[in-house]
Amino acid sequence: MELSDFLAEHRIDAERFDHSPVMTVEQSERLVPKLPGAKTKNLFLRNKKGDRHYLVILGIEKQADLRQLVKVVGDDRLSFGSPERLQRYLGVTPGSVSPFGLIHDTTHSVRVIVDSDLTKAGRLIFHPNDNTASLTISGADFVRFLERQGNVVRWVRV
User: Fold this and answer.
1) Which of 22, 129, 134, 149 has its Cα between 20 and 30 A from that of 32?
2) Least confident span in 14-18, 28-32, 69-73, 139-143
3) Which string of b and e fits 130-147 if b means at least 16 CB within 10 Å?
4) Beta strands 53-59 and 110-115: pairing type?
5) 57-87: string of b/e by CB count within 10 Å (b at 16+)?
6) CB of 103 within 8 A of CB of 94?
7) pLDDT tens column, 97-145
């Protein structure tokens, strides 16, 4: 299913803004116009054995301490998932990681870790599984999106 179809079907309101392709937060700061909402970064991680995968969502102003995150999730060492794993589990390429990729995770294999500070934002900004655009979505609609996906979601302070 296409993301726009999924959002329409579930009555999740998102506003799309097209822009030049961005691969990093630094490029986003330069190339994406100021949008209404909190900018986010999304990290696709795997555990040491490669049998568990995580999507970590946090504000762009934060740094994810992977050693601390290991303690939070109760797993062994975490590292970034390969482009192949990213494509297999979320259906996206590097630079386009987004919680919206969860629509491709039909087995609900990816565990989602969301920084609880994002609950303070009225709107959030994510790629729509493509780094040539950004979507703004209300915090309430984002929670509804996650609930409809069925993945394990944990809200923690990162």
Assistant:
1) 149
2) 28-32
3) bbebbbbbbbebbeebbe
4) parallel
5) bbbeeeebeeeebbeebebeebeebeeebbe
6) no
7) 999 999 999 999 999 999 999 999 999 999 999 999 999 999 999 999 9
The rounded distance, in Å, linking the Cα atoms of 122 and 120 is: 6
The DSSP bridge pattern shows strands 123-126 and 153-156 to be unpaired
Name residue, tokens 């179809």: 5
Estimate to the nearest angstrom the gap between the alpha carbon of 61 and the chain centroid.
Answer: 15
Q: Which of 45, 24, 14, 28 lies closest to 113, judged by CA?
A: 45
Query: Residue 131 is encoded by which pair of tokens?
Result: 């780094």
